[in-house]
């Protein structure tokens, strides 16, 4: 095993066990873990924007991320939208105070970036609130991790046709389809234990295989403009929080839509 692969394996273990334990415990344990990772990812997003030559506010990025999380996990609380409105106006006032050369870009980039990370990522927390929430999370996270691995190795061995050469030159259609196939195999294995049923697991895993890659490509687009290899150095061999969450931002939303519209799952009150 080469050094790079060994570091990635150690980093994967570092991520795997805390995530599984928190998912089993649920509640504040899982919400706290994911919420913290999302906030860290929003700070990394601001760093990427700064590397691209802009001057975004970290405070605006954190505020936007926290607001996005609240809008998803507290959707029926009227005060959430009121607070979000006040914070939106406050972020503009804060930008006036900062007085940077490009105020529109410096305000909008951390706002939209933080909102993207918080709003999309909070669907992972919302999944845990569903009946059989652990199994919905197992589907979303397990299919994402295995699909990423399948795409990596199949693309490395057989990849020839570039998927998005202007964003991520190493990604190929062969790897992408291999990732979808790996997600399907995971659905078959997961159904041995999962109460969600084979059809639901298949639909969910196929959705993850199809859409998870877009999360990876989205972050690659940000990193490419910033000329950065990783979003941070939080996890050995794995990069930053944003690097670990990029695919899950899309996968969590995809599985949430499958859960709520296909399986008709309703959050536990």
Keywords:
269 residues, mainly alpha, 9 helices, 2 strands, 77% helix
Number of helices: 9
CA gyration radius, whole angstroms: 19 Å
| Mean pLDDT value | 92
Spatial strand arrangement across the major sheet: 1-2
Based on secondary structure, the structural category is mainly alpha
Helical content band: over 70%
Largest pleated sheet: 2 strands, antiparallel
- Oligomer classification: single chain
**Total DSSP E strands:** 2
Distance between the termini: 48 Å
Shape: globular
Please indicate the percent range of residues in DSSP E strands (runs of 2 or more).
under 5%
Q: Provide the low-confidence segments as ranges.
A: none
How many domains? The number is: 1
H and E string: HHHHHHEEHHH
Describe the overall structure.
The chain has nine helices and two strands, in the order ααααααββααα. The chain is mostly helical. It has one domain. A hairpin with a 3-residue loop joins β1 and β2. 46% of the residues are buried. The mean pLDDT is 92.
Topology diagram in text:
Layout lengths: L2 H23 L1 H25 L6 H16 L4 H21 L4 H26 L4 H26 L3 E3 L3 E5 H18 L7 H29 L14 H22 L7
Antiparallel strand pairs: 1-2
Helix pairs in contact: 1-2, 2-3, 2-5, 2-8, 2-9, 3-4, 3-5, 4-5, 5-9, 6-7, 6-8, 6-9, 7-8, 8-9
Short characterization:
By secondary structure, this protein is an all-alpha fold. It has one domain (3-262).
């Amino acid at each position: 095993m080469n050094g790079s692969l060994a570091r990635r394996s150690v980093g994967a273990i570092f991520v795997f066990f805390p995530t599984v334990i928190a998912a089993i415990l649920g509640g504040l344990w899982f919400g706290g873990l994911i919420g913290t990772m999302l906030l860290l990812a929003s700070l990394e997003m601001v760093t990427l924007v700064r590397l691209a030559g802009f001057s975004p506010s970290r405070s605006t990025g954190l505020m936007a991320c926290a607001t996005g999380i609240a809008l998803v996990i507290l959707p029926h609380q009227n005060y959430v939208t009121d607070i979000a409105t006040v914070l939106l106006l406050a972020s503009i006032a804060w930008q006036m105070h900062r007085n940077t050369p490009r105020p529109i870009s410096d305000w909008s980039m951390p706002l939209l970036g933080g909102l993207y990370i918080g709003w999309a990522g909070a669907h992972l927390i919302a999944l845990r609130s569903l009946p059989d929430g652990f199994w919905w999370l197992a589907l979303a996270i397990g299919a994402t991790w295995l699909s990423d691995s399948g795409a990596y190795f199949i693309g490395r061995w057989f990849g020839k046709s570039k998927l998005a050469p202007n964003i991520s030159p190493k990604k190929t259609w062969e790897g992408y389809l291999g990732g979808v196939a790996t997600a399907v195999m995971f659905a078959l294995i997961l159904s041995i234990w999962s109460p969600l049923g084979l059809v639901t697991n298949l639909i969910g895993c196929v959705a993850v295989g199809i859409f998870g890659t877009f999360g990876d490509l989205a972050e690659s687009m940000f990193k490419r403009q910033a000329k950065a290899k990783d979003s941070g150095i939080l996890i050995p061999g794995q990069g930053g929080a944003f690097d670990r969450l990029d695919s899950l931002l899309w996968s969590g939303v995809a599985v949430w839509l499958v859960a709520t519209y296909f399986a008709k799952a309703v959050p536990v009150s």
